[in-house]
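Hey L., structure's done. Input below.
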Amino acid sequence: MTDQKPTVVLLGALDTKGQEFAYIKELLETRGLRTLTVDTSIVGEPAYAPDISASDVLATAGEDLESLRMAGDQGKAVNSMAVGVVRAVKSLHRQGRLNGILSMGGVSGTTIGTAAMRNLPLGVPKVMVSTLVVDNVSDFVGAKDITLIYPVVELEGLNRATRLILAKAAGAVAGMVEMRAQMSPETMPSAALTTMSATSDAADNIRMRMENGGFEVISFSASGRGGDVMEELIRDHIFDVVIDLTTSELVDVLCGGGYPSSGDRLTAAGRLGIPQVVVPGGIDMLCFGPQNRVPARFSDRNIYIYNDRATMVRTDEDEARIVAGAMARRLNDALGPVRLLWPARGVSALDEEGMPFFDPDVDGVFIEVLRNRLDEAEQRLIEVDAHINDDVFADAVCQTAFELYKFSLNEPKP
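Output:
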């Protein structure tokens, strides 16, 4: 009879955190889970025998543990170990030997542990106990669903504080592994949808129409990180169609806004040939946090204070040319069907007659660049005489998405 116990991979330095990992290992196994320990020790010997040694991990990266120790280059050792654990962990997952992963540590441990986690698919339980959990954790989390636990105290030995924190971490990963999500029917197609507060009415209308049409819709906030997450999941082949309603992150990354994406926006779907409907939603603004975070170079611009945590700067004609040109280049390179829908009466809630960012001249520059540079042979540009948040525009977006999806079903994959 096959043992169906789920396996939690424990990843970390057993020379400095061996006692702590042994404690978590016992808790998980007492609960009925299997554990598999991957050692990332660089300096000392492991406190207990791992299932995969540090030497084996480094070998997958083409490095030798003793040579790295003798060289004494901590930075190179950490980077090499990170490369090794990514390969080792991906291999364990492919073999069905990883149902969840838990790691712990400080600078080196968090760097190595989260490197492995960022290379695992969405939904695989990932728990990182890190003393580095501070305001900005984006470099560690990336575009993946990593749970970060701040231990409050240093992870040095077992005491009343560390036992409590580590037990909660063990419980977190165990609960995630044991919980099974109710999956959508495999026959249901899925659509990605980007949104922000200034395009939320449009997003709500589109979501309702797509769901009524038999699609599962997964939404992403166009807040810099949200777009990156969507691009990552597109590369994981999660979606059958992409509705990139809110492309404001492209403005921030190209023109110095406060919520830029990584620069890969509008690329993943095109490279994979996935049908995409693109809307320049929110391209009328650069987004920042509190007003005091708006750079001085924007002080003479049209600024709108949305609330004490959000400030917007109206894009000008030069920025419109930059963003429209980049958008046209990326969409012209797409291998699959693409349509860009232009809402002629405004691209956000602020870009409407009577609203602070209503500026037909700047919008005119944007659409003129698209007219000149988008591939006409593919009829990629569709102009709609409506505001982005109007019902008629949502109708046009969804009708286009349905048509592209049906077309793609009959086309050979690139």
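The mean pLDDT is 92. Residues 174 and 380 are 48 Å apart (CA to CA).

-- N.
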